[in-house]
Amino acid sequence: MEGNSTSHRLLGIWHSFRNLPLWLQGWVLLVLMPLNGASLLLLESFSGQATALALLLVLAVNLSLMWHHGGMNKDMSLVHLLAWIPLELGLLGQLAGVWGDDFLTPSQWAFTVAVVMVNAVSLFFDIVDAWCWAQGDRVTLPPDHS
């Protein structure tokens, strides 16, 4: 019985995600997750380590929230704010030469700039969602709209 309940909940979460606008699904699956996930292959650099740490925090908390709600909820944006804002500051500090690696290879520089740009766009959406959540929009996106 437990396995059936688990698979039912996972399927509900997947359908909730699939009910996001198509462009947002594409953004998450084709841009945001792959770029931040690439950090796990770049752990020898400050930007790779910082991005991986933020990614793991977001995954741990947001997967728990999705499981709790049974789908996508705007409270997930709060975790992004807590993880991405310090990450953005850290990576911008690295690009400015304030901390981090003394020398960035061209590929490390490109990765760092890409993460800053992509996560800045993500933060825009997260700020809007966090504002809506703070104003009382606590609805979990249902698995289907019927």
Helix content: over 70%
Q: Major β-sheet, in short?
A: 2 strands, antiparallel
β content, as a range? under 5%
Please work out how many helical segments DSSP would assign.
Answer: 5
Widest sheet, order of strands = 1-2
In sequence order, what are the helices and strands, one letter per element?
HHHEHHE
Name the poorly predicted regions: none
Distance between the termini: 27 Å
User: C-alpha Rg, in Å?
Assistant: 17 Å
Please tally the β strands and state the result: 2
Overall geometry:
elongated
Please state the average pLDDT score: 93
Structural class: mainly alpha
Structural account:
The protein has 146 residues and is mainly alpha-helical. 73% of the residues lie in helices and 3% in strands. It has helices at 2-18, 22-37, 46-69, 76-95, 106-134; strands at residues 72-73, 140-141. It has a two-stranded antiparallel ribbon with strand order 1-2. The radius of gyration is 17 Å and the shape is elongated.
Concise structural overview:
This protein is mainly alpha-helical. 73% of the residues lie in helices and 3% in strands. The mean pLDDT is 93.
